[in-house]
Amino acid sequence: MSISADDIAYIAHLARLQLSEAEKQEAALNFKNILALIDQMQSADTDQLEPLSHAIEASQPLREDIVTEKNQRDDLQKIAPKCEQGLYLVPKVID
């Protein structure tokens, strides 16, 4: 795929850029190089490769699942306005 001067002018218009002729030629060359790199990457043989879920194979170290605080439910329910059978009672707000 090649990029023409009209394509560069259209892209510059969309980006609201004013490019000189030299800048347009440089942009066209840069686009051409990028597209050539994409073509080169697409021609690589990847049939024997497995897809990765992430670009970097890393694992998340996890801490042990150990209880570090005591159960304070009874203490907290003592100061609540209304509790019944271990549940907080709240007034009905929706009919």
From TrEMBL:
The record's note on quaternary structure and interaction partners says: Heterotrimer of A, B and C subunits.
Q: Does the keyword Protease apply?
A: no
Gene name tied to this protein: gatC
Q: What's a GO biological-process term for it?
A: regulation of translational fidelity
Descriptive protein name: Aspartyl/glutamyl-tRNA(Asn/Gln) amidotransferase subunit C
> Which Pfam families does this one have?
GatC
Q: Give the EC number(s) under which this enzyme is classified.
A: 6.3.5.-
Q: Its biological function?
A: Allows the formation of correctly charged Asn-tRNA(Asn) or Gln-tRNA(Gln) through the transamidation of misacylated Asp-tRNA(Asn) or Glu-tRNA(Gln) in organisms which lack either or both of asparaginyl-tRNA or glutaminyl-tRNA synthetases. The reaction takes place in the presence of glutamine and ATP through an activated phospho-Asp-tRNA(Asn) or phospho-Glu-tRNA(Gln).
Which GO MF terms does the UniProt record name? asparaginyl-tRNA synthase (glutamine-hydrolyzing) activity; ATP binding; glutaminyl-tRNA synthase (glutamine-hydrolyzing) activity; transferase activity
What catalytic activity does the UniProt entry give for this protein? Answer: L-glutamyl-tRNA(Gln) + L-glutamine + ATP + H2O = L-glutaminyl-tRNA(Gln) + L-glutamate + ADP + phosphate + H(+); L-aspartyl-tRNA(Asn) + L-glutamine + ATP + H2O = L-asparaginyl-tRNA(Asn) + L-glutamate + ADP + phosphate + 2 H(+)
What PANTHER family does the record tag this protein with?
GLUTAMYL-TRNA(GLN) AMIDOTRANSFERASE SUBUNIT C, MITOCHONDRIAL
Can you tell which superkingdom this protein's organism belongs to? Bacteria
This protein's UniProt keywords: ATP-binding, Ligase, Nucleotide-binding, Protein biosynthesis, Transferase
HAMAP family membership: GatC (MF_00122)
